[in-house]
Amino acid sequence: MSSRIALLVLMTCLTLVLSACGRASAVGKQPGLVATVAGKEIFADQVEALQSKHPVAADDVAAAPDSEALERLIDEELLAKRAIEQKLDSNPDVQQQLEAARRAVLARALGDSLAAEESSVAPADVKEFFNKNPHLFAKRRIYTLIEANVRCLPQEAKAVTQQLASAGGLTDAIAWMHGKHIAVTTSRGRKPAEQLSLDLLPRFAAMKDGDIAYMSMPGGLTIIQLQSSVEEPIAEADATPVIVRYLASQRRATLLGKELRRLREANAIEYHGEYTRLAGTPAGT
């Protein structure tokens, strides 16, 4: 069976499995029932969930998003029914992908459940984050950058950094690398502060036009030259929803990490084959 068919079965069958979870069958028309396909019921909450994942542009006046979502669910139901009739759901690859998706959904649900048990993000926490990160908000800038990704050995990386210090600019350093047959690719673009690494943002904020910075990366270097920047601050009121989402996400990750450590200590985990080397090694190392 081709990988395309396997993916199709994964998408359609998973939609049906997940939407059916927690819904008891009953005789007669149920509240929220919007369609029945070969005896399979489709409910309004399924349509709303799909519609939220695939929103229609506001200027698309001809679109009927709820109808479009419903028709898509009907198509998926028909495809899934046909796939099951052909016993494609018994294919080992499809079963493996369905099980992987099931694990991911349940793990995400646990994280959401843990986060829901915590109190909401306090206004004081929002204000503190806003004040501690002026380069993201009150002093936010839009940066025009030239980025060079260099693939090189450690000894070559040292020579590259020395050349950056002595060359007339990034263009001269790139020409030198080409002459030494060192692989380098360049790109130019505008990036707002929030698209840069939070740890490196103070470093970028301190740079002046023309300044060059470089960071060691696996397999080489990343070199960045600041061409120009302009200030575009964000007021605290406008930043608040973004900060709330960020802090809630961080809190969720912390709670999930704590729960994972507890679960790893409480459950027996055995490694086999080539993975026995991981026994006794802390997760993530």
Short description:
By secondary structure, the chain is α+β, with helices and mostly antiparallel strands. The chain is built from 9 helices and 6 strands. It folds into 3 domains: 106 residues, no CATH class; 91 residues, Chitinase A, domain 3 (Roll); 40 residues.
Summary keywords:
single chain, 285 residues, Chitinase A, domain 3, 6 strands, 51% helix
Please, could you describe this protein's structure?
The structure is a single chain. With 285 residues, the chain is an alpha+beta fold. The chain folds into 3 domains: 106 residues, no CATH class; 91 residues, Chitinase A, domain 3, CATH 3.10.50; 40 residues. Helix content is 51%, strand content 17%. The protein has 9 helices and 6 strands; from the N terminus they run αββααααβααβαββα. A 4-stranded antiparallel β-sheet has the order 4-3-6-5, with helices on one face. Helix 1 packs across helix 4 and helix 4 packs across helix 9. It is extended and about 75 Å long.
What's the main sheet like?
A: 4 strands, antiparallel
Mean of pLDDT: 84
| CA radius of gyration | 26 Å
Q: What number of domains? A: 3
Shape: extended
Main-sheet strand order equals 4-3-6-5
Number of strands: 6
- Structural class category: alpha+beta
Write the SSE topology.
Blueprint: H1 3-20, E1 33-37, E2 40-43, H2 44-53, H3 65-85, H4 92-116, H5 123-132, E3 141-151, H6 154-166, H7 170-179, E4 183-192, H8 201-206, E5 212-217, E6 220-231, H9 236-266
Antiparallel strand pairs: 1-2, 3-4, 3-6, 5-6
